[in-house]
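in:
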């Protein structure tokens, strides 16, 4: 089954599992060369999310991190440069999302952006360019500017860095395991385990996702 077929049924207005929250996908990645789990979003569902969609995508990933024992996940809002450039909408949206977090429109995480990938995951790279923040070099979550960049990051880590990933869709009435069709059996098992854990947390916290009962 293709991703489009599955998600089409999930978001159906008549018989789907949609809620008030935008659904999004998170890759939970274990990378041999990174000291902790890394979450990449969104890499499979939202093609070109706008600001309001990115807010939900970010909140979904933060809540997943909470459920996995990370109380204040560090979110790197990615762009191609680390400075705000009016000609690059991703940089403006990154800065806006950070301000939204300051105003409690995004809760539970520490945001910084725009950040490039190297500045998000390498303290050495961040220090070399003089970037000082609680997120730079130690991100827990990479919030991609669009699906293409998020998908490429996840697949590059899997095929070039021997990373193991689990895929999950959040924001619906139930969590949904979703891997790429090229992923191996380890990713299938990890995704199944992850979705069971999140389903347990949905029940335990009486499901805080808006519109879910």
């Amino acid at each position: 089954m293709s991703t489009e077929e599955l998600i089409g049924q999930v978001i159906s207005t008549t018989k789907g599992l949609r809620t008030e929250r935008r659904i999004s996908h998170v890759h939970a990645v274990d990378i041999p060369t990174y000291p902790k789990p890394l979450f990449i979003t969104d890499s499979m569902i939202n093609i070109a999310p706008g600001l309001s969609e990115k807010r939900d995508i970010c909140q979904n990933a933060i809540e997943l991190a909470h459920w996995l024992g990370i109380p204040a996940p560090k979110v790197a809002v990615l762009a191609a440069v680390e400075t705000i450039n009016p000609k690059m909408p991703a940089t403006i949206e990154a800065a806006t999302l950070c301000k939204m977090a300051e105003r409690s429109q995004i809760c539970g995480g520490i945001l910084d952006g725009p950040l490039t990938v190297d500045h998000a995951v390498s303290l050495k790279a961040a220090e070399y360019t003089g970037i000082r923040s609680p997120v730079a070099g130690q991100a827990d979550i990479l919030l991609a500017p669009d699906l293409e960049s998020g998908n490429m990051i996840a697949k590059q880590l899997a095929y070039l860095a021997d990373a193991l990933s689990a895929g999950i869709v959040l924001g619906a009435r139930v969590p949904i395991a979703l891997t790429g069709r090229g992923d191996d059996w380890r990713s299938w098992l990890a995704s199944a385990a992850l979705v069971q854990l999140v389903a347990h947390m949905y029940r335990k916290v009486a499901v805080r996702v808006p519109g879910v009962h």
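note: The beta strands are 24-30, 38-41, 74-78, 110-115, 141-143, 164-170, 176-177.
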